[in-house]
Design goal:
539 residues, 14 strands, 16 helices, 21% helix, single chain
């Protein structure tokens, strides 16, 4: 690495000097100092200017170092960044956004193992292996086209995808993470301010389009949130707090140097948590404090709702502006349908020959589950077997009896996907590109051939018998926080109670109740409830 950088530095030293001359900076003495053959920072004019000297000069003279540098020197990929940021490049090799795996301390039964996006199963595009050329369009790297990708080479990190400040950087959908030729890479490189904190658009462009389209997967993260109003999200609304994603998803810092190591907080669904994630109380204080003087104060102080996470009431619905996919049936794929049916409410197609049929929804009320921060996940080759349906691909763990668990909201995703019916395993079909073999489903539309390719690529046995199984996935809901006036239960007690009680929206059995306590439901296995007694208890 150092040899490569040294060679690049030597070849560009004259060009760096030329940059300073072109901007009229090399000959300027530091303010208040006579020109004694030196420029600001004590750099001797007779010496070539190194990147370190360049940085010092730019900082003293309030110059955007990247704009200055890349105005003359051509951006030549990640190596151009590594010239000055070798340490950061090496640190980026360890980040979950690049590795797509980490210690799975939050996956029950797999604690201490290493897994992640590389081998987790889902019921959207199913899995990465054999489909890398398409799936890696949101990878924080370039060239991840198959399982030979070198995760130890910092030259494979894509610095611009996160650090672009121009809003113009993008990745080609089918080019393994590479940008299209239409992107002006030099202009993108010039846009990066010193520090280069990711913009909201840089984060959302990938996360909103997970699963194959805008707001398809998460339901609470859409492209509309790049520039939205507090009506749709009080935190990201430009007329609200107008926060960047990094305000809550803190980057992790080296405890010795304080330098950012590119870890990022809040990826608990993948079990890779690399930083200190902000929680509501960090900014708003305790539930009792923030609700003092409101109708909710009585409910909280009486102990009726102390196990409710803030998100339950303050995110009453998701996909309030951009619809989200709530059902996906791969079993319907392969048909030629003309014209393509369109959902009249959302305007989005409900069928794709490559992917099957879908259901789109707006104003989706999240489902509620107890969660202690751990999950069960289906992992390729580890626990990809099944005995019953629906197969639970991602499910939070916790219950009322667990003192560490609280009730949180989740998006429920249901559908059907291909499985090996002989071995009773969830296999990865080869859907796209040459990496997985000669028979991708999106080319041949033959599920058996696609299963043969996918099984061989992932090293899994295939009985030769395939079918489709019902699957479910739960995804955390944390965005689209509504204004307080729209929160569930807002208003004087007890008027707001009916937002949750006496409705048909709550799966009470999943929360340990026989029925809605307002309707006489009791804790499963406990004595009759005194819920309606203001001085009583929950159970």
């Amino acid at each position: 690495m150092k040899a490569r950088l040294s060679a690049v530095l030597h070849s560009n030293a004259v060009l760096i000097t030329a940059v300073l001359l072109a901007f009229g900076l090399l000959l300027l003495p530091m303010a208040g100092q006579a020109d004694g053959g030196k420029v600001a920072g004590g750099i001797e004019k007779s010496k070539l200017v190194t990147p370190e000297d360049f940085l010092e000069y730019a900082s003293i003279n309030d110059v955007n170092i990247h704009e200055l540098y890349f105005s003359t020197i051509l951006y030549e990929g990640t190596d151009s960044c590594l010239m000055c940021h070798e340490k950061e490049g090496l640190a980026a090799l360890q980040m979950g956004h690049f590795k797509w795996e980490g210690k799975t301390d939050r996956i029950v039964g797999l604690e201490g193992q290493t897994h992640g996006k590389k081998d987790l199963l889902n019921n959207f595009c199913i899995a990465i292996p054999s489909n890398e050329g398409r799936c890696t369009q949101c990878h924080a790297g370039i060239g991840y086209k198959d399982d030979t990708f070198d995760f130890e080479d910092p030259g494979n990190v894509d610095c611009l995808v996160c650090h672009d400040q121009s809003g113009t950087y993008s990745k080609a959908p089918t080019e393994a993470g590479a940008p299209p030729l239409t992107v002006d890479l030099n202009m993108v490189a010039r846009s990066i301010a010193l520090g280069g904190e990711p913009t909201r658009k840089a984060c959302i462009s990938c996360h909103a389009n997970a699963g194959g389209g805008d707001n398809v997967k998460h339901g609470d993260i859409s492209m509309s949130m790049v520039s939205t109003t507090r009506e749709y999200d009080v935190h990201m609304g430009t007329d609200g707090a107008d926060l960047k994603c990094t305000a809550c998803h803190d980057a992790n810092h080296d405890p010795k140097t304080g330098a950012v190591n590119h870890g990022n907080a809040g990826m608990s669904l993948h079990s890779v948590n690399e930083g200190e994630m902000k929680v509501c109380a960090d900014c708003h204080g305790s539930q009792q404090k923030i609700h003092a003087g409101t109708g909710a104060e009585d409910m909280i102080s009486e102990g009726w709702h102390e196990r409710l996470a803030c998100q339950v009431c303050h995110i009453p619905a998701i996909a309030r502006k951009t619809s989200t996919k709530t059902e996906w049936y791969w079993s319907d794929a392969g048909q030629t349908i003309d014209p393509i049916p369109v959902d009249p409410a959302t305007g989005r197609p409900t069928y794709d020959k490559k992917k099957g049929s879908f259901v789109w929804s707006n104003n989706v009320r999240p489902v509620l589950r107890y969660s202690n921060g751990t999950w069960t996940r289906k992992v390729i080759g580890v626990n990809d077997g099944y005995t019953s349906e629906p197969i639970q691909l991602a499910e939070p763990q916790g219950s009322y009896e667990d003192p560490e668990a609280m009730i949180y909201p989740f998006k429920k995703m249901v559908g059907t996907q291909p499985v090996d019916t002989g071995n009773k395993t969830v296999l990865v079909p080869h859907l796209f590109g040459p990496a997985g073999g000669p028979n991708p489903y999106w080319g041949k539309f033959d599920w058996n051939l696609a299963m043969i390719d996918g099984a061989a690529y992932t090293g899994r046995p295939y009985s030769g018998e395939y079918g489709f199984a019902a699957t479910e996935m739960l995804l955390s809901v944390n965005h689209e926080v509504a204004p307080k006036e729209e929160a569930l239960g807002y208003g004087p007690f007890p008027d707001g109670c009916v937002d949750c009680h006496t409705t048909q929206d709550i799966e009470w059995d999943k929360l340990g109740w026989t029925d809605d306590p307002f309707n006489g439901g009791d804790r499963v296995g406990s004595a009759p409830s005194a819920f309606l007694d203001p001085k009583g208890k929950l159970d």
